[in-house]
Amino acid sequence: MRILLIEDDALIARDVIAHLDRAGFVVVHEKDGEAGWFTGDAEDFAAVILDLGLPGMDGLTVLKRWRSAARTTPVLILTARGNWQERVEGIDAGADDYLTKPFQMAELLARLRAIIRRSVGQASPVLSLGSISIDTRTKAVTCDGLPVDLTPLEYRCLTFLAHNRERNVSQAELTEQLYSQDFDRDSNSVEVLVGRLRRKLGREVITTRRGYGYRMGGDPA
């Protein structure tokens, strides 16, 4: 899943990107409010991590512009420690959660996973789809109770489809969500990846819906 990080502090951004990458996310990083607003308005993301103290355009203005334009992407705001007024204003402006600086990366990841779950109506950190179970905290996947060894890319693909199991996901959208912008994307990469998941989890787990893309479960069409 793609995450938009809007943070001007280079050290914080580097650490966040490294931890998100290890957690299975694809990160797009913007360093100022104007660029962050434009990217978040023009592209789709699973969630946004938004610093409020940004150059160019402050984070609160970025958030208000998105919400006034009916952009519903979940937003986790980062605020200065002890500035409760910013936190209140951010929540009132449409933020889904907040985290004060300095913070622990484990808490950031937990809060990020939580707002993504809530955005798709999923309360539990464990995704259960028939015989498949995905623990988003530990990245452990089981099938019929037995552990399944997935590569980071396979896990990323499976969790994105699982979070979006109520709809069809096009090949173009799946490619955008799985690969970083500088990755040399082959047109058959997604087909190969889905094929590997089917061999490990069963062909019925991911169906191809002709003309629409892929879907977790359901009948092929």
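Above is the first protein from milestone M3; the second protein from the same milestone is given next.
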Amino acid sequence: MKKIIVAFLTLSTAFWTPVVFASAGGSCHFHGNKPAAEATVSSCASQRKDALVKSGKLDAAWSAVKPEKIEMVEGKKSKEWKVTFKDAAAKDKTKETLYMFFTPPGNFIASNFTGQ
């Protein structure tokens, strides 16, 4: 009986260990209501932009573009982070400014070229 309990505890510990070591902001996914720091939002926006480039949804030229402006704005439901990227060399002038929106804690909401 003692061996069964030890085996069970060992297996359950091994099973839950990855969850225990997961970081609070791993992959830019956050819980709670505490507003994220501007640097955190900037980093998450860059990661999201790079993912869009990698998936082919954005032109490869966007890879080198850094966030130009980060601000807290009033969204449709509440406040949200608005991150602006500007590619002055864009061929299509309607797509020279990319906007990304994040919740106050830093979770991605949407991205577009309209800013709405």
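Note on the second protein: The first helix runs from residue 2 to 21.
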